[in-house]
Amino acid sequence: MLFLIDSNVAIKADPLGHVLEAGVDVAMEFLRLVSTHHHDLRTHPASRIDFDRIADPKKRAARLALFGRYTQITSPPQITAAQIAELGEAVPGSNDAVDDALLASVVGHAVGYLVTEDDGIHRKAARMGVDQRVLRLADAVNLLRTLHVDLPSVPPSVRRVKTHELNIDDPIFDGLKADYPPFVAWFQKAAQSQRDALLIDGAGEHAGLVILKREPTGEHGLPGPQLKLCTFKVADEYSGQKYGELLLKAAFEQAHAEGYEGIFVTLYPKQEALSAVLRGFGFEPLAGVTTDSGEMVFAKSLVAPKDTTLTPLEQHIAYGPPWIAWDATTPFIIPIEPRWHRVLFPDAEPDDGALFSAADVGTRPFGNALRKAYLCNASTRLLKPGDPVLFYRSHDEKAVFVIGVCESTLVSQDPDEILAEVGNRTVYALADIQALARRGDVLVVKFRQDRVLRGNPITIDELRAEKAVNGWPQQVQRIREEGREWLSTRSDA
After folding, report:
1. Distance (Å, whole) CA 461 – CA 332
2. Is residue 192 part of a domain?
3. pLDDT tens, 125-153?
4. What is the reported pTM?
5. Same-domain status, 351 and 402
6. Which domain holds residue 99?
7. Is 312 contained in some domain?
8. What is the distance of C-alpha 140 from the center of its chain?
9. Do 291 and 367 lie in a common domain?
């Protein structure tokens, strides 16, 4: 794969002295993995403009000399009229002009991925629809670890604890204390109120957490009861592991079980990465509403209106998970071998006391996520966005433990095209993808995990008795019309 790196990545990876940039460890790990697995690393000619702005001539010369060790891409694509129409025309030589030039290399398919820590480029990539190919360093590292199964991460779990069990001196709280001076007093009050919290443990520290608060009457004009997610935070060193989605997964399940009308989060405008994650799951900022400390309020309704103009996929994003538009979609069943099921759906494994646990599975980021991808050599081309997908665990359990909602599909025999589509969403390593492609067309199903039927899976005997399927599922197939109504009711049982 060809990775294009922004100047901010090169600066992290090439320290000029003993003072290291924040995130240097992740940058070095990215370079190591690229080198180890023989991927291509390039820079863009426009990036030199970033260094030309350095006032100190000695520092500018040193930076340019270090940057010169990277090979530039040849004949980079020009910025298209469509890109200018969407993003506007930047002033030549400006930061925006450089950003747009780098982004044009992604839009023009001159590179596989752009790696950058620039929030502005990530926002522009989302507007251009290429955000899945514009990665932060941590995401790039985990993409490479997933594809090459190089360094499996520690299996994560989410524990429900009381706020007083959290360590107020943990580094995860340092930024909150700086941004909000009364934080310690607020935390102590929350602890004394016996508030619940969701916690992901790290290696001796808190890797991620959220403190929960029930708002019976609703706050900020929202209809109650609302579940407020306070101090939603993932530690910097655990960025890229999809721990934010893992916490959301736990919060959505709790909100659904306890019958909340909605969920909301408050965050500062500078928390752009978190706001991007929240928007991806149906949270929207309340117009003109801010807290006394200047935070925005992102809210999400969990109650769907009877009449809606949203598509089935848009409904799932807006009101779920869990939410499936059964009446407007066609359910499909996808057989999946136990070995792939274990790592793609670790939260469907036997319960060991944690909310989401994978005690015997080396989980990687795709297992933590709500947005995933599955690959197979299937002949069907009928799946549409919003269609329910039932993952049938074959061989041992012979039952459906997980139901998802289709986001999109791709059929290809090109491993590079498949990699660009799925990123680190999928269970398959690079060698697995290449092997699938050699056998013929590969069906890529990008989906969102909707629900896990942990204690009450849908067995093959039920599926056959209710005429949802004819026999043992051997490939991706539609649920029969006779079983659709029963399935919509059974999946909520």
Report:
1. 17
2. yes
3. 999 999 989 999 989 988 888 777 543 33
4. 0.73
5. yes
6. 2-148
7. no
8. 13
9. no
